[in-house]
């Protein structure tokens, strides 16, 4: 009997030791996975740190171009935008550019308010669209261009601007874009600023993100002669591209990213004009921000699965740094990071439930989160300092929102996870900032 008890005790001890050893091996495996993911992410996105110093050592070469005043069509997709549409049209009509060279076209898309009436009274050519099945900005632009092709000669306009109804243009916007257009760029994007930076941490988070994308992503891309990314609105397309593609044929939830990726694959480089500034209105409630970024997250997944393979192959076949830059942009890295963090926490809880000390493992998690916070804070800090004069709010708020910027970025993580499992449809973002460009600049 004594021998049997000793044998049972030996088996139990062996089981506990083996179980503890298995637990340690699991945690070491997770640590190895964490380190691997961190190294991969650092490699994938290291070029974004390089972008920060590119403007310090690289100046844009001046190109001798003619002073041709091109004729432009302005395309505006609007859905129930009666509060803001006239202010945009006013900022277009008061541009320091010949008025006869700019025609304004609005598609009142499934509107139930006075958007169409007010846009016409402000001087725009308005087409009304009613389609409850094909909903989204891509379909609205497709419809609008088809209407223009039916009523105007396809060669009448040299280029087409795309704006959202809540935008406002700096008085020199079209002039600056025309100067760069004369250099021969088929697509040009511009400097995206905010009408309501100082409202709260949500609007500031959006604003800092777009300012960084303009000043510290698209600007260095143009300086090193690689392609840029169109971001929602505020860009110019040559008539050759519009005619070649027979209008607008990008209908995913993020039609701007789809447009950018498609042209990267085609090799039609997108340039950036730093002097052309426009302003748009950012969401101010978390519920509104959640809905919008859910659409963006879902749209990124759509673009990745539709174009990811071609984009990846073009990295090596062309070779194309632009394709690489866009590939890592549309990769579901937030979802990967969130899943990795969740697995870490689950295993730590299981390991702790067995009576093991998990202090070291928890410290690793805190260090990872702290590092992520500092990196995003650094991006916000640098962007705030370099774009200080272009941020139109009180200095105190500029400082405060540098610290909330990483939190805003973190809120994208659960959104990215939920978007994987949730069907998402395009929904309009309601705009209420009925102000003029003078109000913003003052």
Shape: globular
Indicate the low-confidence ranges by residue numbers. 1-17
Order of helices and strands: HEHEHEHEEHEHEHHEHHHHHHH
Helix content: 55-70%
Describe the sheet with the most strands.
Answer: 8 strands, mixed
Strand order of the largest sheet: 3-2-1-4-7-6-8-5
CATH topology: Spore Coat Polysaccharide Biosynthesis Protein SpsA, Chain A
The CATH homologous superfamily is named: Spore Coat Polysaccharide Biosynthesis Protein SpsA, Chain A
State the domain count. Answer: 1
Average pLDDT, rounded to a whole number, is 89
What is the CATH architecture term? Alpha-Beta Complex
Oligomer: single chain
The count of helical stretches stands at 15
Write down the Rg.
26 Å
Terminal Cα span: 92 Å
CATH class type: Alpha Beta
Give the percentage of residues in beta strands.
Answer: 5-15%
| Structural class based on helices, strands and sheet pairing | alpha/beta
Task: Summarize the model shown.
The protein has 442 residues and is an alpha/beta fold.
């Amino acid at each position: 009997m004594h021998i049997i008890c000793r044998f049972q005790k030996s088996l139990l001890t062996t089981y506990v030791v083996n179980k503890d050893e298995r637990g340690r091996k699991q945690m070491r495996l997770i640590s190895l996975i964490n380190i691997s993911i961190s190294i991969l992410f650092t490699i994938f996105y290291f070029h974004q740190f390089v972008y920060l110093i590119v403007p310090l050592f690289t100046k844009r070469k001046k190109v001798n171009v003619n002073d041709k005043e091109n004729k432009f069509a302005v395309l505006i997709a609007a859905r129930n935008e009666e509060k803001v549409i006239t202010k945009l049209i006013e900022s277009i009509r008061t541009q320091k550019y010949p008025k006869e060279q700019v025609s304004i076209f609005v598609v009142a898309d499934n509107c139930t308010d006075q958007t169409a009436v007010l846009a016409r009274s402000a001087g725009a050519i308005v087409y009304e669209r009613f389609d409850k099945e094909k909903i989204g900005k891509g379909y609205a632009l497709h419809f609008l261009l088809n209407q223009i092709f039916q009523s105007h000669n396809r060669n009448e306009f040299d280029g087409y601007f795309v704006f959202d109804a809540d935008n406002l243009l700096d008085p020199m916007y079209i002039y600056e874009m025309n100067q760069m257009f004369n250099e021969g760029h088929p697509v040009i994007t511009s400097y995206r600023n905010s009408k309501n930076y100082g409202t709260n941490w949500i609007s500031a988070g959006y604003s800092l993100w777009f300012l960084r994308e303009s000043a510290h992503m698209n600007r260095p891309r143009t300086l090193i002669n690689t392609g840029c990314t169109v971001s929602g609105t505020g860009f110019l397309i040559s008539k050759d591209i519009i005619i070649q593609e027979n209008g607008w044929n990008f209908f995913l939830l993020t039609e701007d990213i789809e447009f950018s990726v498609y042209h990267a694959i085609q090799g039609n480089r997108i340039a950036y004009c730093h002097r052309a500034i426009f302003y748009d209105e950012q969401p101010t409630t978390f519920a509104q921000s959640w809905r919008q970024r859910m659409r963006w997250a879902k749209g990124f997944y759509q673009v990745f699965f539709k174009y990811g393979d071609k984009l990846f192959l073009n990295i090596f076949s062309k070779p194309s740094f632009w394709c690489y830059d866009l590939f890592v942009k549309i990769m579901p890295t937030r979802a990967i990071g969130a899943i990795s963090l969740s697995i870490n926490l689950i295993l730590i809880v299981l390991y702790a439930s067995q009576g093991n000390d998990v202090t070291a493992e928890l410290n690793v998690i805190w260090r990872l989160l702290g590092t992520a916070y500092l990196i995003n804070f650094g991006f916000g800090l640098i962007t705030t300092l370099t774009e200080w004069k272009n941020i139109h709010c009180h200095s105190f708020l500029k400082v405060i929102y540098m610290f909330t910027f990483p939190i805003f970025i973190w809120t994208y993580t659960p959104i990215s996870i939920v978007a994987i499992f949730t069907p998402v449809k395009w929904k309009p973002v309601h705009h209420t900032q009925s102000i003029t460009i003078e109000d913003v600049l003052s």
